[in-house]
Design goal:
The complex is a heterodimer. Chain A has 13 helices and 2 strands, in the order H-H-H-H-E-E-H-H-H-H-H-H-H-H-H. Chain A is mostly helical. The chains are: A mainly alpha, B alpha/beta. At the A-B interface, helix 1, helix 8 and helix 9 of A face helix 2 and helix 3 of B.
Chain lengths: ~350, ~260
Amino acid sequence: METEIKEAISADSRADARRHGFSDRAFFLLTIAFLLVALAAVLVLSVGMGAVRIGVREVLVSLLNWHSSDSTNSVILFQIRLPRVLASALVGAALSVAGLLFQGLFRNPMADPYVIGTSGGAALGAGLGLFLLPRFSFLGFGGTASMAFFGALASMALVYWLARTGGRVPVITLLLAGFAVSTMLSYSTYFLVILDDNFGLRTRVLAAWLTGVIAVPRWTQLEVTSVMVGFGLACCFPLARRLNTLALGDDYARQVGVRVERTHLAIILTGSFITAAAVSLGGVISFVGLIVPHMARLLMGPDHVRLLPVTALAGAIFLILTDTLARTVLAPSEIPVGLLTAFIGGPFFLYLLRRTRREYAL
Amino acid sequence: MTPLLEFENVSFSFGSRSVFDNLSFTIEHGERSALIGPNGVGKTTLLRLAAGVITSSSGAVSLAGRTVDTLRRGEAARLVAKVPQRFEVPFDFTVEQIVEQGRTPYLGLFAAFQRHDRRAVDRALELADVTSLRSRIFNELSGGERQRVKIALALAQEPRLLLLDEPTQSLDLGRKLELLALVRTLCHEGVTILAAMHDLQLIEGTFSSVMLLEPNQELRKGPPQDILRADILESAFNCPPRQPKLAGENRALLEKML
């Protein structure tokens, strides 16, 4: 009798849980559907906004026909606005997902895409490109963007090599080495300023770039970056499940058969690669990679498999919105988008921090 | 019959500090063995060797007749599961999300959760009696509940050997007894258990054998009544000069150690 009751109760709670599991799943799918619709809407609206307003209907018609005629609006749409909006979407998605990867890796919600020193390498690379290779061009990327990309990857490799001891890379050492290398590299850009004989013009360009500016990219640049970011995001899918296991500790992960060091390396490589790709389009944009994964986590819970698509979509939407603001609020002059992400992202982040009021375990 | 776990002349050292030398013992199927010994003697290290998380400097650790270095990581994880002593979770994972991680050895990088994975998780939650907590957030649970969730996590691996590291640590008396009841249940379910234990007074009645690990001494193994003797424990744990009341009385010494 007693076992019968017990069985009945446990069967009941299983059914309950399954119902619960289903609604979780439904919630996830609804969120994804909502984000997709929102992304499309934000894209169409922001393409229409700017010095010349283009109506939603006209935008839709041109986008659906996908042809660029010689009309002014068409040129604005296909040569200026659309590339820039798509670039913001790519950069936003890439930085947010990189932030998610590093927060998961370091088991610390304060980590961001630049946490292991990529920003310092990107800064120095950008500076070198700007001052030494001003006429360089490769696949549509100028010297600044290309050198920033390689600088970011090189600094990541240096940090990883420095933190490696006896076949292992302790994450705390990685964090510290990243901080030191990043600081050293970004300060060394000041030496370049001394070389500046152009009334400080390049210095100002560099400063804006280091705050984050999404320029109007060429279509080849967009193609190259989307391939890189797309490849990076595809690599994230198998890593997302591993991040869930790693959240329970390296020792635990090792015990259930995860090759911990190799997985760490894969996460670092993927994260740095998509960060570098984002940097080559938009400079060093702060806060996106920190707060978007956070917002996603508040909405979806900590399961990285579900967080991954939500974070990517939310990051794209967030940066399209902020970049549209950046170029329209004080039109015709432009605010660096990094400034806006800090001014919008900062207070919002603090609000979330105050509201959730929970202590994070390290 | 091949023993489930076998240590054959196993030595292990951290750098230059030797932890054990030529350690040999076996654990048979269905055994419930308590591993005791003073702090720092290497109980956790022994469990980690058995789980295949670290490898010995020399000698062989075998699981079900195969040495751990010939087993692939995932294979070892289907034979043996270790319940960690320290377990910090940085994000707000629910109990169910945590226990699902126990299926990792069975899942490839791309494979989705199958029906039998789901069943294994349900069964683990049920065995560890945490089904009612499945939607709760792990970090908000009490110490006793967390301990049971950790065991459910290990059970989701469907291991034949379960390694417990100080399972009763920092639990109140009632939760300690609950945990021992769980150990006995698991054994009836066919899980072999090796547990590092500090609470010596809780061993008799639950564990079928005791292994005493002492620095620079041979490992002793035997039924609880043979090992949990005042003279043996006093020297092993380097107890202070005896008080008259302790002499010869197992019970009294054990009470002293509460």
